[in-house]
Amino acid sequence: MRAIAVLAFLLTFSCSTLNYENIETAHIFLEPAFNRTPEEALDVILTQVLNDAFRTDPRFKVENQIKTGETILIKPTILSFSLFSVGYDERDRTTEYRLSMTIRFELYRAGYKKPFKVFTITRYGFYEVSGSGTEIEERKKECMKRVAREIMREFADKLVFERVRRK
Question: How many CB atoms lie within 10 A of CB 143?
């Protein structure tokens, strides 16, 4: 019993030392997402998810204006978006789609024209295609948001890792 208490204490202590208190807050400026795909409203969804993700993450401070020398400018571009049918019923009708999205993030220092770092991230998700057209479209939008949130989480972690590694 005592060993379990010691192990729990060590795990709690080691996890608490992994928080981001020692990392200074990154000052970022978010540009709206640019959509290179024919999918409508994808740029709006991605921009909303991007804003929500960075404004709620304590590791970042979203700036309203670019400050030379301390602000990182982030330019997201949706490079690809695709749907594949992956689930079928006994009559060969599609029951499930796989949605795939690739986004490129270019990081600029304020005042520079060339990016200092570029990340390209691809993720996918699934959604069911039964019910009315409105229900299917709603599931598709939810899947887009879910995939975009996964991409944002990975991008934010990569951005923090790059900042720590550069120091």
Answer: 20
